[in-house]
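User
Here is a favour to ask of a fellow structure person. I am asking you to supply a protein in sequence and structure-token form. Please set it down just below, with no commentary around it:

Assistant
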Amino acid sequence: MPTICPRCADPEIRTVTTSPVPGVWEVLQCPRCLYMWRTTEPARRTTREHYPEQFRLTPEAIAAASEVPTIPPLRG
């Protein structure tokens, strides 16, 4: 399991779910930036050193971000 979030470098990573077959994959999430990934994804999605620099976040950028929009209700 990674020790830091690939996107914001937060050291706290949570396991959201695991594969039905034990040990195959996990879905992880960063509680600070809410980035979520599966452990079987390529390094550019799972490790900080390979994550694209233009998409990396800092604590300051997260604090200055505008509110995340809500998902509208489903149409009937």
